[in-house]
Every structure is written in structure tokens, then in C-alpha cells.
Write a structure and sequence with these properties.
311 residues; Rossmann fold
């Protein structure tokens, strides 16, 4: 991407350069007072956001809507396809053409990998990928990087320990690509059947990025600067028996954190199921709810950038 994001689609973190990412992070930092309600703006007054969510969402959908409202714009859309003409057989292409006619920017979540890329071919307005199957989730990655930069003061020279469903997890796929741009060290913790896909590991090797593969969570905690936990995604498993074998395999509790660095932070894209005990919420390490809030200023920045309201 060029530094001017006006009219750009946000489909994959691979479409971003390191400079692009830093530009979004800096723009998001300036949006924080507006995101908290401490300052008001009508930067996107008269603009309409279409949120098309074919899969369930809490944080992504609501934070995009909060972002648009905070910027003075308006929202149309749906939170389930059950109430739309897709139930009558309408194609994604035709749905996108309608949203393109009714709005200025489209946010799409879809169960099929590549759906956002396809949607961008049928829309004259910017399309933002809010998650496509097991593919990419670029705005989650940007808020994750914003969180790491805000809390750790830098992204590079951190040991990022990523835990859980690394095979199907679109959040960790996007995050891994992005972290490689900043030369972060990565440790991937998962059972062998859910480890990071080979094509991503090959990409890291080509870039000379240090990484470790293991299934031992407790041994990795003492050296972690960031502990990034993900849930085992039942909805992505083609075989229920395979899910049953790995469900609940990793669970963080306060005792496991006794040897952690004092400034180690725990992140999670949420929702959590049972992989982080509620007691961890009270520790100094827990950052996942603040991380979720950070989706608002980051998505405010993206909306303002693609709509040309800021450069």
C-alpha cells in the first residue's frame, strides 16, 4: 500500500508494508481521545458504513460501529445472513453490489476464505476484511500490533509466544506475517495437529525470522514478553472427534504465571472459552480487554484513512 490509503481495500496484512502499519498505528494513537469519548469529531459526517456479517461477531462488529459513530458517520448492515436475500439464493457478488450502492465503505465478515478479495472486485467502494474463514483478519492484527507497541513501547525485539489453534486461526496467521516485518522472535505452541501451517513457517525461514515450535506451554512462559492465547475453534474442525482430542489442552491460570516476567502481557483476540481462567483477569499481566478496546481507535483510523478524511 501507498501511504495515501484513500479508496484502498483492506483485505490482507500481506498488502501492507512496515511503513503502512506504522502509519495506521500513529493515526490510531491520535484517535484514542475520540474513542474514549474525551473528544468529539464529525470527521466522517455524511459517510455511511455497511457492516455485512455472515458469521457471528461481537468485538469486530461493535467496534467498527462504535468507530463510525465516534467519527460522526452512520451505519447500515446486518449481523446475520438469516435476514438477508442470501437465504433466497442471492450471490455474494450481488449483495456486495447493493451495499456498494448504499454506502461509502463496506466491512465484510464471511466464512469462506477469499470472500473479501472477491467482494472487492464487485465494489467501487473500499472493502475491509473483518475475517474470512481461516484466512486473514487484518484489522485484528493492526489492533494487536497497536496494543504491543503501546504497552511494550516497541514491536521488534520482543519474544511473542503464540498459543492454541494455529492451524485454523486467521488472527494468528495475519499476526505472524506482520510480526515478521518487525523481526520479532516467535514461539508457536500447539499440538502437532494444530501447528502453524507450513507455508507460513516457510515464509519465516525465507525472511530469517527466529521461531520455535513446541507443545509445552509452561516452559515458554518465563521468556515470553507477550503471551498471545487463542481458543481452539470448534467451528473450524471438519471432524468433531478431532476437536474433542484437543479441546481444553491449554489453560492459563495464576499459578502458571509465577515465573513470568513482571512486564509480560497476556493477549487474546476473544472470545475466550476456557483457555484463560477468570482469576487471571485480576493479574497485572491481563491485557485482553484493553486490547479489545483498542479495536475502536484502530478501526477509526482505518475508516478515516480509506475514506480520505485523513492522510
Amino acid at each position: 500500500m501507498k501511504k495515501d490509503f484513500t479508496g484502498r481495500d483492506i483485505i490482507s496484512i500481506k498488502d501492507f508494508s512496515k511503513t503502512d502499519i506504522e502509519h495506521v498505528i500513529n493515526a490510531a494513537k491520535q484517535m484514542v481521545p475520540v474513542a474514549t469519548g474525551a473528544r468529539k469529531t464529525n470527521l466522517l459526517n455524511g459517510k455511511i458504513l455497511a457492516t455485512l456479517f455472515f458469521e457471528p461477531s461481537t468485538r469486530t462488529r461493535l467496534s467498527f460501529e462504535s468507530a463510525m459513530n465516534r467519527l460522526g458517520g452512520r451505519i447500515i448492515g446486518f449481523a446475520t445472513s438469516k435476514a438477508t436475500s442470501t437465504e433466497k439464493g442471492e450471490t455474494l457478488a450481488d449483495t456486495i453490489k447493493m451495499a456498494d450502492a448504499y454506502s461509502d465503505v463496506i466491512v465484510l465478515r464471511h466464512p469462506n476464505e477469499g470472500a473479501s478479495r472477491l467482494a472487492s472486485e464487485f465494489s467501487s467502494k473500499p472493502v475491509i476484511n473483518a475475517g474470512d474463514g481461516a484466512g486473514q483478519h487484518p484489522t485484528q492484527t493492526l489492533l494487536d500490533l497497536f496494543t504491543i507497541k503501546t504497552e511494550k513501547k516497541r514491536i521488534k525485539r520482543n519474544n511473542i509466544v503464540i498459543v492454541g489453534d494455529l492451524k485454523y486461526g486467521r488472527t494468528v496467521h495475519s499476526l505472524t506475517y506482520a510480526l515478521s516485518m518487525f523481526n520479532a522472535t516467535m514461539t508457536f505452541i500447539a499440538p502437532q495437529t494444530l501447528q502453524m501451517p507450513d507455508e507460513i513457517l516457510s515464509d519465516l525461514k525465507e525472511k530469517g525470522i527466529d521461531f520455535t515450535l513446541t507443545n509445552n506451554l509452561e516452559s515458554a512462559i518465563p521468556d515470553a514478553d507477550v503471551l498471545y492465547i487463542t481458543r481452539i475453534q470448534k467451528e473450524r474442525f471438519p471432524d468433531p472427534e478431532e476437536y474433542a482430542k484437543v479441546s481444553g489442552i491449554y489453560r492459563i491460570n495464576p499459578d502458571m504465571l509465577s515465573n513470568a516476567k513482571k512486564d509480560m502481557i497476556i493477549m487474546h483476540p476473544l472470545p475466550r472459552i476456557d483457555e484463560i481462567a477468570p482469576e487471571v483477569d485480576k493479574t497485572r499481566h491481563a491485557l485482553y480487554f484493553k486490547q479489545a478496546f483498542n479495536g475502536v481507535p484502530v478501526r477509526m483510523a482505518l475508516l478515516a484513512l480509506v475514506l480520505g478524511a485523513r492522510r
